[in-house]
Amino acid sequence: MNSNEIEIHKELKKYFGFSQFKGLQEQVIQSILNKKNTFVIMPTGGGKSLCYQLPALIQEGTAIVVSPLIALMKNQVDAIRSLSSENGIAHVLNSSLTKSEITQVKADITAGITKLLYVAPESLTKEEYVQFLQSVPISFVAIDEAHCISEWGHDFRPEYRNLRHIIKQLGDVPVIGLTATATPKVQEDILKNLDMTDANTFKASFNRPNLYYEVRTKTKNVESDIIRFIRQHKGKSGIIYCLSRKKVESIAEVLQVNGISAVPYHAGLDAKTRAKHQDMFLMEDVDVVVATIAFGMGIDKPDVRYVIHHDIPKSLESYYQETGRAGRDGGEGHCLAYYSYKDVEKLEKFMSGKPVAEQEIGFALLQEVVAYAETSMSRRKFLLHYFGEEFDSETGEGADMDDNVRNPKTKVEAQDAVVKLLEIVRDTKHIYKSKEIVFTLIGRINAVIKAHKTDTQSFFGSGSDHDEKYWMALLRQVLVEGFLSKDIETYGIIKITPKGLDFIKNPRSFMMSEDHEYSENEDDTIVTASKSSATADEALMEMLRELRKKVAKKLGVPPFVVFQDPSLEDMALKYPITIPELCNIHGVGEGKAKKYGADFIALINRYVEDHDIIRPDDLVVKSTGVNSANKLYIIQNIDRKLPLTDIASAKGLSMDALIKEMEQIVYSGTKLNINYWLDDLLDEDQQEEIHDYFMESDSDKINDALKEFDGEYDIDELRLMRIKFISEVAN
């Protein structure tokens, strides 16, 4: 160590009490002390702030730190003040200060006491502040959260765009940009915008080997799934992210009703409540915080054990940031995201009102999230590739820490298909995004393809032996392998790389794993416990099926009329042994429990005793009763023979949603007489034909009925007839 190095190790010990630097910190600090422009890319929790705090404390003059978050500035100032006897060692300069406080800040800076001055970008645009800062010695300017400069970042702030001009007015001071999230595109943007393409760049690895990544299908009973997950992690701290405030409130409420200590956190709560909820979480008075992304910026809780995304985020950067709040202490961190393509479509709708350029960026970022969720390759490799980092999924640290690696999908040889794909990218001359490339392969025409006359080329449709899903999956994997590149500047145009051209010349084995199928039980409108089958008691399930068959035979009805499969699965999971407990089973209402319940609870009772089963009486997912008012309204107004269209519009429901509600009502055992409505839709013979079909069928699935009648009836007619059938035959 030269004397300079010994010096900064001594200072590190003196101010921060550490005897060693972490990762790249030491090199970064040396670069700053040498007055060089410096750019630091370091994941959250990597020790970024120390990189500018230490050099600021040991240099002449004041360092200016630009930060977008007032709460974060306050935390940092408090932390630095605790290191020194001088309160004035660090100050905040922003709109929240009074006149006299501003005077005090200026005096401390002039006296050379203040080493770090935290400012919001807006404050820097004030003429009086700029003039004052021109008159005092400035050691350097640090720009924290530098990705806010780039509209490709996940948190773009227009006011960051002016920083370069303001810094220039302060004279020739070195600039340090710091960010915790940066795709290669965002990094380039930051350097260009700060006019520091000559900067020393330091990039730490984005791999967090202790985090386990998992994506599950978002079914209708996602709430029960979340409750089950939290119960498996009893007493541990977790964060649940939702996209809307409304969702935050309702999930927090469902968790509370089910005995989980949780609080909501979003920008709609007043500052006092927000601060209180954040403190409760930090002090472990509550286990779970349900939040919009407004939460977590200033949170430095090292032992968050899981982060759940109830809704998929808008970009992979946000996802990386938010999951990165788990396991900061190096201990376990489970990152669970629920994915359904419907959510993605919702996000796309939100974007449709924005300027075109912003929409393009938004769509490009969203497609990356979809690709991440649907991929069957190592999620860690996929994420790190997105951040421009290579990862060896065999030997890399944390290689087995994701659901795809632990439950690998079968791989198939795709050598010839890869060649075909690469040739198409080459021969269409790099003008297309993924969608058009796949369309060209399968021979589907759209406006873009027509405009370029690609449909007249000999290779058009040359990959029609595989479907769109197959080619999309292959394209993603070939991208990650580096045979193709995606040009983000042009919103995702695909180009071939030298590595790809070489593969065409010298093809070799390429094993691809097929994408996940995320089906959402489109058909079985009532099935919401479909996920639970994996944990149900198989032996009991068999016995319940047998009993159902017997009861159905005796009554001369199809078995599904007695109880649907999801209800049996739920019984095999929760072991209800009284009628009230049976009423809490999924899809079983009081009417149904009284009518058919006795035999079933008798069977379960015997089974529980014979096998010494400890019943999970806490597994009843209680609902917050939001829908009960709707249900009552629907039942009363069907009794009054009000047109269904009127009932739907009075409650702000679509027809589909109203039918769903009605299905839940009749399947849980309440009668609904909708003859007045059906008689206008279908004549007597048609109704009889559908009734007989359900009577003789083994299944009440609408898809099966649609196939059987082959277009004779539409989906709503069949669903309404199924409601009538269940209502009359079962209830």
TrEMBL record:
HRDC domain location: 534-614
Sequence ranges assigned to domain Helicase ATP-binding in this UniProt record: 29-200
Main EC class the enzyme belongs to: isomerase
SUPFAM superfamilies xref list: HRDC-like, P-loop containing nucleoside triphosphate hydrolases, Winged helix' DNA-binding domain
Reactions the enzyme catalyzes: Couples ATP hydrolysis with the unwinding of duplex DNA by translocating in the 3'-5' direction
Names of required cofactors: Zn(2+); Mg(2+)
Enzyme Commission number(s) of this protein: 5.6.2.4
Key words, A-Z: ATP-binding, DNA damage, DNA recombination, DNA repair, DNA-binding, Helicase, Hydrolase, Isomerase, Metal-binding, Nucleotide-binding, Zinc
Pfam families reported in the protein's UniProt record: DEAD, Helicase_C, HRDC, RecQ-1-like_HTH, RecQ_Zn_bind, RQC
Protein name: DNA helicase RecQ
Organism of provenance: Flavobacterium agrisoli
